[in-house]
Amino acid sequence: MIDTKVISQGVTRKVAGSGLQLKHLSIESKRIGLSGLRSPLSEVTNGQIRVTKSEKIICAIASYLLPDI
């Protein structure tokens, strides 16, 4: 996703650091759609957002994983 400039390297590091993998995001987005993708990315853990709650970033990832939305 970095090569195609969907998300920045910093966001990619946050995703990787959170324990999420592309396959997790892909499965959730295909199963539930945009809300399935939003949930693990914006989950609050220990008072902090897991990765991001930015709609712009979440929509960019969704358009990469689900190009028909």
Structural overview:
- The radius of gyration is 11 Å and the shape is globular.
- α2 crosses α3 and α3 crosses α4.
- The model has no long low-confidence stretch (mean pLDDT 87).
- The protein is built from 4 helices and 2 strands; from the N terminus they run αααββα.
- It has 69 residues and is mainly alpha-helical.
- The two termini are 17 Å apart.
- A two-stranded antiparallel sheet has the order 1-2.
- This is PML C-terminal domain-containing protein.
- It comes from Dreissena polymorpha (Zebra mussel).
- It holds the Pfam family PML_C.
Report on the biggest sheet. Answer: 2 strands, antiparallel
- The overall pLDDT average reads 87
In total, how many beta strands?
Answer: 2
Structural class of the secondary structure composition? mainly alpha
Estimated radius of gyration? 11 Å
**Share of residues in strands:** 5-15%
Q: What strand order characterises the main sheet?
A: 1-2
Order of helices and strands: HHHEEH
Number of helices: 4
Helix content: 55-70%
Shape: globular
Q: What is the terminal separation in angstroms?
A: 17 Å
